[in-house]
Design a protein that fits this description.
The protein is an alpha+beta fold. It has four helices and nine strands. The strands form two sheets. It has a five-stranded antiparallel β-sheet with strand order 1-2-9-5-6, with no helix packed on it. The protein is elongated, with a radius of gyration of 19 Å. The protein starts with a strand and ends in an 8-residue tail after the last helix.
């Protein structure tokens, strides 16, 4: 299984002006560094929570449907990575000669309300097996809370600001590499494994 970012978010959940206000930076000499801190803080929040903040497009490549514990409900549902799910753009199967063919979208339902989102087979349908041994299934999907910073939960935005502040200060005294406030803000968004 591999996950590849195809289209990153068009903006960041925290603006340069918000970060500069938190840092109490007035001029524009530090803008490049602050923008870098914002991006790296967002990426850290997304990595630690397994979630996408703003709308972005990914492709997941799988060898088969089963095998990683995300196939559930007697094999009729596949939980997708990177919640929240906005949409599934295509599910493609590769045959033994590497020829791609898209699964008919009428064969499954895309559940964007579950967390994580999932593909659900319609009654009487089954997942077609790929002919290619490795990476024979490709699922292209969009995920994130929305298109604008206002769509992102306030706790995630504040965690990003806390990380920007920590980066500017040199990151001393952090718990697991996170400021304590950021760690507590991210806790409810982290995936729990049983």
């Amino acid at each position: 299984m591999s996950l590849t970012l195809l289209k990153p978010p068009a903006a960041e959940p925290v603006t340069l002006a918000e970060a500069k206000a938190r840092l109490r930076v007035a001029g524009d000499a530090e803008d490049s560094a602050v923008n870098h801190w914002i991006q790296s803080a967002r990426e850290r929040v997304e990595r630690d929570t397994g979630r996408a903040c703003l709308a972005q497009t990914w492709v997941e490549r799988r060898d088969g449907w089963a095998g990683d514990g995300r196939l559930c409900a007697f094999g009729t549902q596949l939980r997708l990575l990177k919640p929240p799910l906005i949409a599934v753009e295509a599910v493609t199967i590769h045959d033994a000669d590497d020829a791609p063919s898209e699964i008919d979208p009428a064969a499954f339902f895309v559940d964007t309300l579950s967390d994580p989102g999932r593909l659900v087979l319609r009654p009487g349908e089954s997942w077609p097996e790929p002919g290619r041994v490795a990476g024979g299934i490709e699922i292209r999907f969009r995920c994130g809370y929305g298109e604008t910073a206002a769509d992102v939960p306030a706790a995630l935005r504040e965690a990003i600001l806390q990380l920007v502040l920590a980066q500017a200060r040199g990151s001393d005294g952090l718990k697991d590499g996170l400021p304590p406030v950021a760690a507590s803000l991210l806790a409810p968004f982290r995936r729990v494994s049983l």
